[in-house]
Structure formats: C-alpha cells, structure tokens
C-alpha cells in the first residue's frame, strides 16, 4: 500500500499524452465476451429452456431446474420478512423519488394545426412487456431494481419481467427481491448472464419474449444485449462503471478521493475514475487521501486492481482545456466540483449524468436523487443517453389532413414521386381528386 501511488499525467489541447489516450480508449463491448455470448444465444434461440437451464447450472446454480426458474410469491413474501425495517423504509423513499422524477419527465400527447384545418401531432403509449436485468455478481444491486422497474411502472408498462442471478443454492438475494417487488415487477426469474438476456429476447416456454431489455451487467451481459438488438429494443450497452471529476481549487481532496473510490469499488476490475484539474497541489493532496480511504473500505481487495490501472489524475493548463478533455472522455458520471457548476454544465457535450457542486456526490444519484443510474459507459455517452421514462414508451406520429391540405401539398408529392420514380405515391393522392 505504501508503494502504491495514484497515476498522474499532463495534457493540453496542443500537447496530448499517450497515458491519457490509452485511458480514454475503453470500448463498451469486449470482443472476446461477444465471442462467448454468440453461441450461447444461438443455443437458447434453438433449444429454449433447456439451454437456459444448462447455462444457469453451469454459471450460477448447479441444481436449478425449469420448474425453479420463476420466483414464487411465497418467496417474495419471505424475502420481505428477511430485510430490516430501515432498508424497507429507505427503499420506499427511493422508489417515491424515482417514480416522481419519471412521472415529471413523461411526455404528453400533443397536436398542432395545419394552415388549412388539419392536425399534426404525436401520441405516446407504454410498451406492453419489458425485461429488466439486475446484476447480482460482485454486489446485489437492489437499487437497480428501482432504477429500472420503477420507471417502467411510471410509464404504465403492464408486464415488467426481471431476471437476476441466484446463488449456488438457487436463492435470490432478499434485498433484491424486496426491491423488485416494491418497484412493481410482475415476474421474477432466477437467472443471470447471457442466458437471461437470451431468454428475454427470444422467449421460451417458461419465459415469454419481451419487447425491450434494460439494465446494466458485466461484459458478457453487455455483449449479449448488443447481439440481440433487433430481436428486442435496448436502452444502451452499459459496461463497467466510471466517473470523471472536473475540479478547481475550491474542491476538497478528501471529497474527490471518496468519489473516485465510490465508482472503483464496483470491483469488476475494469472501472475508470478520472480527475481533471489545473491545480497540481490538488492532485498531490488527492493521491495520499485516495490510498488512506481505500484501506478503510470493505472491498479493498477488489479496489486494488483499479487503484493500479483504473484511476488517473490529469493536470491541464486551465479549466477550458480541462473541459475539452472531459468531453472527450464522455463519462458515465461527471462531477463538477467547481465554482459556478451550472455555468460549466452548459459546456458539457457528453456525459451520462452531471452532478453539480460540492454537495452532490455521485452516490446520491446511484441511490436516491431520482434520475436513473442506468447510464452509458465506455465513451458511449457521446451518442447515447441514460435510461428515462421515454425508454418505456412508443411514439406514433398523428397526421390528419383536410381536402384543402392535401391539395396544398400535391405539388410536393408530385415532385418527389417524379424524382424517386414512385408514381404510385402520386396516384394515391391524385385519386382522391378524381384525377386518375
């Protein structure tokens, strides 16, 4: 521990750093994981429950059978009795906050008038059946139950299917089960990994096909989600957790160290934690604080690989250039520990979630604030957004023209029909005016 030091680098828009470039390179999908996932998915597509059980027995619960797949109501009731009252109280509070945020962001149907008496607009309806994936490997993510299923409930989804791995005895963590029940899940299956994604995407005799799969997972889950895209819709492909901290000299070294560790402790070995600041003194203070705090955490052994390779402090010439680096990193979680964080937030072009100011640690977003913690990773925040209530809705355009409207747009239809060689399109409009 004494010999372990935080990695540092210097970077500017004029003079890049090989260390920083390597750190920024983190593909969301591991090619080797995709190679593993592909044949498993193919077997599930062809064999259904038999293949699901075969892989569930191999990776999770050796004695699992098809009849054991679905978690019973009695098990859920028993799980509620196992959890402590404080957890149940706080889980209800989190559910309330997440539901309220989702409802506030839910889009409403709208219409506008055309110039000649018609109407145009959009209507939104919830999906019928969705699947949520809840990881259970390195940590039982009870909070993810709420950050996925509660939002689906707020959208009005009637059938919410959850898959989460069981332990070797075939038992699902009681805190996860309780949170899933609280969130409004209608079916729970004790399977994880690629086999869970395949079962939800293709459907089996036991598990009916869903329309969309959401939720984070390990490299194999992420690869499987990518491979089933098209069979189902997806939120995004989420891999190992990551955080970027953008700091000036108003930031506390102890706060920064704690926030870096909060993401590193997930423990897959591939997490990324980046500090960007112009202040060398701050970097010098964060390094020892990081090691001191890490030694006190229960997951210290899992943290070690990340402390060696996944944490980087970068000194930049000024905050403006630092923001350019932040945007290139496109972090899952971005903390703005600076004066005027709202002003700097306007300069952020790519981040899954932005945490403004010294009183907004990323952990508040993970558990309590309201927005979902299911966010794009691996630089995917440059093109994807985090999970919202919109992800559980279908949007349909509404078009209602009057006779005058159609006559008004006839020249447009005729022009494009002529250029594209689609005279049938033109005819379908002309015929309404007796112009065959």
Can you describe this structure?
The strands form 3 sheets. A 6-stranded parallel sheet has the order 1-11-10-9-12-13, sandwiched between helices. The chain has a 5-stranded parallel sheet with strand order 6-5-4-7-8, with helices on both faces. Strands 2-3-14 form a 3-stranded antiparallel sheet, with no helix packed on it. It folds into 3 domains: 153 residues, Rossmann fold, CATH 3.40.50.1980; 197 residues, 3-Layer(aba) Sandwich (Rossmann fold); 33 residues, no CATH class. It starts with 6 loop residues before the first strand and ends in a 6-residue tail after the last helix. With 436 residues, the protein is of the alpha/beta class. 45% of the residues lie in helices and 17% in strands. α2 crosses α8, α2 crosses α9 and α16 packs antiparallel against α17.
Would you spell out the secondary-structure blueprint of this structure?
Layout: E1 7-10, H1 18-24, H2 31-47, H3 49-59, H4 73-82, H5 85-105, E2 110-113, E3 119-126, E4 129-133, H6 142-155, E5 159-163, H7 174-183, E6 187-189, H8 193-202, E7 212-214, H9 219-228, E8 233-234, E9 242-247, H10 253-264, E10 272-277, H11 280-294, H12 300-309, E11 311-315, H13 319-329, E12 331-337, H14 341-345, E13 351-356, H15 362-367, E14 393-400, H16 403-420, H17 423-430
Parallel strand pairs: 1-11, 4-5, 4-7, 5-6, 7-8, 9-10, 9-12, 10-11, 12-13
Antiparallel strand pairs: 2-3, 3-14
Helix pairs in contact: 2-3, 2-8, 2-9, 3-8, 4-7, 5-6, 5-7, 6-7, 8-9, 10-11, 16-17
């Amino acid at each position: 521990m004494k010999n372990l030091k935080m990695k540092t680098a210097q970077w500017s828009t004029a003079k890049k750093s090989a260390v920083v470039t390597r750190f920024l390179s983190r593909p969301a999908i591991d090619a080797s994981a995709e190679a593993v996932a592909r044949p498993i998915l193919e077997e599930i597509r062809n064999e259904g429950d038999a293949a699901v059980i075969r892989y569930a027995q191999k990776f999770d619960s050796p004695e699992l059978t098809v009849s054991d797949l679905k978690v019973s109501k009695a098990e859920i009731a028993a799980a509620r009795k196992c959890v402590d009252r404080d957890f149940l109280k706080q889980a209800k509070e989190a559910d309330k906050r997440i539901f309220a945020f989702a409802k506030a962001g839910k889009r409403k149907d709208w219409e506008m008038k055309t110039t000649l008496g018609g109407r145009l607009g959009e209507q939104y309806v919830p999906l019928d059946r969705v699947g949520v994936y809840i990881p259970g490997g390195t940590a039982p993510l009870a909070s993810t139950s709420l950050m996925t299923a509660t939002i689906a409930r707020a959208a009005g989804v009637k059938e919410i299917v959850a898959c989460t791995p069981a332990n070797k005895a075939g038992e699902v963590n009681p805190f996860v089960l309780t949170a899933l029940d609280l969130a409004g899940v209608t079916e729970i299956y004790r399977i994880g990994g690629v086999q869970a994604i395949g079962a939800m995407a293709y459907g089996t005799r036991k598990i009916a096909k869903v329309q969309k799969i959401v939720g984070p997972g390990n490299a194999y889950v992420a690869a499987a989600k990518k491979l089933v895209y098209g069979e189902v819709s997806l939120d995004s492909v989420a891999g190992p957790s990551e955080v970027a901290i953008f700091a000036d000299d108003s930031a506390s070294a102890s706060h920064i160290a704690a926030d870096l560790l909060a993401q590193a402790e997930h423990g897959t070995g591939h997490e990324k934690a980046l500090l960007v600041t112009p202040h060398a003194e701050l970097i010098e203070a964060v390094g020892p604080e990081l090691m001191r705090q890490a030694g006190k955490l229960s997951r210290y052994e899992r943290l070690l690989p990340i402390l060696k390779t996944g944490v980087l402090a970068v000194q930049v010439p000024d905050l403006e250039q630092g923001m350019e680096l932040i945007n290139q990193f496109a972090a899952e979680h971005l903390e703005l520990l600076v004066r005027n964080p709202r002003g700097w937030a306007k300069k952020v072009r790519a981040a899954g979630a932005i945490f403004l100011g010294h009183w907004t640690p990323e952990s508040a977003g993970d558990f309590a604030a309201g927005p979902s913690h299911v966010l794009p990773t691996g630089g995917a925040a440059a093109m994807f957004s985090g999970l919202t209530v919109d992800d559980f809705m279908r949007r349909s355009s509404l078009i209602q023209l009057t006779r005058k409207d159609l006559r008004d747009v006839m020249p447009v239809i005729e022009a494009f029909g002529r250029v594209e060689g689609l005279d049938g399109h033109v005819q379908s409009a002309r015929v309404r005016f007796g112009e065959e």
